[in-house]
Design goal:
single chain, 13-stranded mixed beta sheet, two-stranded antiparallel sheet, elongated, 12 helices, 2 domains, alpha+beta
Length: 446
């Protein structure tokens, strides 16, 4: 008997009891739907979190904190290290920043702000993706770039104001700066200690650019980016390295090599990040990249997805009980047919294959229907989730949030599990069919 004949025989027999067949397929479809939808939550959250990391952080970035020597001592990074980083293969940029060791006050007419101040080497910053929303990059020593939130944060003196902010957290209009910052001269008030007292000096700087806002709307950057020449002015005035307020002798008499507080290395492509990171760690540099985080996150979500698939499989195992019952009854009802087939010389293996084919047929139909329903539920869930969060919980969902995601891999895994479970469910009844006695079968006694 050919496979085509076996399949025709199966279809003919399944039409004899449509209600029972429908209920069995329905149970299998529900189990498959539950498995796919449940596991899709793990895939959806994984996609959302990884997508946010890809969007909000540079995946080609490697952050360096320092270096450990052969004696175990930890050292800050210097120009010698920067030169070495630039020679590493597939490195496109090495950014380095020094933090001014005090928070100077920046004053423009009646408006002022205390900001973190960073010495920045812009050629490498541009290679790494630094962008401006307004203005241009500094071309002279006294020209600076300010952070994206600097214009909305600089304000009049608020020390004597009770409620300077609106309910939404923005500065009230009467205290906010309304003019144009580009090409404005702003005074940076630096401090040094003399006889236990603070002495101030104003260094005039020109704002020529405003940095582009980060993709994270809640991240407010008010940093001021200055040149190394300005830092040297501050050090010459304070007499300390980095403009620190703590006494320590002349800056020029301290460490001869310039050290950096923040060094980031950027690879040409994502694939090179892991190799670069491994090389740096081998050279005893303290390095960290988003690739390290992705490994950990991927492992956590892999365990989560496997767990959800395992739980979902339980629903299919429950549905398999119905398939087992259906196939057992089918063997009983078709005892005469089995007897006739054996009487005319049918191979027991053929009889077994017919019943296994029938259970697989039920499983395939259930998996097909369950998959279609699961995709529909997934679509509805993702469509309704923002509305539910907004209407019921009064929360704004994160941009790009996907609660349910069904990749082809999940579909294939689920359908495979469904077919395997249904195949095993029909295995025992199929074995029983091969042991049917011909004479008893003809008398409908099984």
């Amino acid at each position: 008997m050919t496979f085509k004949d076996q399949f025709s025989f199966v279809r003919q027999n399944t039409k004899k009891n449509k209600t029972r067949l429908f209920m069995t397929i329905l149970a299998t479809a529900i189990g498959c739907t539950f498995l796919i939808v449940l596991a899709s939550v793990g895939f959806g959250l994984h996609k959302s979190i990884i997508g946010e990391m890809m969007e909000n952080r540079l995946v080609t970035e490697v952050t360096l904190y320092g270096k450990t020597d052969d004696k175990g001592a930890f050292h800050e990074l210097t120009d010698t290290d920067i030169e070495y980083f630039e020679t590493i293969e597939n490195v496109k940029a090495v950014t380095r920043r020094q933090t001014l060791q005090q928070w100077p006050e920046f004053q423009l007419d009646d408006y002022k702000i205390n900001s973190n101040t960073l010495v920045t080497y812009f050629p490498e910053e541009i290679k790494a993706g630094f962008e401006l929303s307004k203005g241009r990059l500094p071309e002279k020593d006294n020209e600076i770039v300010v952070g994206s939130a600097f214009p909305e944060t600089i304000s009049k003196d608020l020390s004597k104001v009770d409620e300077p902010y609106n309910e939404d957290g923005t500065l009230k209009e009467e205290y906010a700066y309304k003019g144009e910052l580009i090409d404005q001269t702003i005074n940076m008030q630096v401090i040094k200690m003399e006889d236990g007292k603070e002495v101030k000096k104003a260094i005039p700087l020109t704002i020529v650019g405003i940095a582009k806002a980060p993709s994270r709307e809640w991240l407010k950057i008010t940093d001021v980016f200055i040149s190394e020449a300005v830092l040297k002015q501050v050090e010459a005035y304070t007499g300390t390295r980095g403009g620190s307020l703590e006494p320590g002798g002349e800056a020029s008499e301290q460490k001869t090599d310039r050290t950096y507080d923040n060094v980031n290395l950027y690879a040409d492509n994502v694939k090179s990040v892991a190799a670069i990171s491994e090389q740096l760690k081998k050279d005893q540099y303290a390095a960290h990249s988003i690739a390290d985080e992705l490994k950990q996150i991927n492992m956590i979500f892999t365990i989560m997805k496997v767990g959800l698939i395992f739980i979902g499989t339980i629903a299919l195992i429950i549905a398999s009980i119905g398939i087992y019952n259906t196939m057992t009854m089918a063997v009983t009802e078709r005892a005469p047919d089995i007897g006739i087939m054996k009487a005319i010389g049918a191979n027991p293996k053929t009889i077994k294959n017919i019943f296994l084919l029938e259970s697989s047929y039920i499983g395939f139909l259930g998996a097909l229907i369950g998959t279609v329903v699961a995709y529909g539920i997934s679509y509805i869930v993702n469509l309704a989730l923002p509305l539910v969060l907004t209407a019921v919980f009064e929360e704004t969902p994160p941009k790009g949030l996907v609660l349910s995601h069904i990749p082809w891999s999940l579909t294939l895994i689920s359908v495979s599990i469904c077919l395997i479970v249904t195949l095993f469910s029909g295995w025992r009844p199929a074995e029983r069919a091969t042991r049917v006695d011909v004479l008893k079968a003809m008398r409908r006694e099984v």
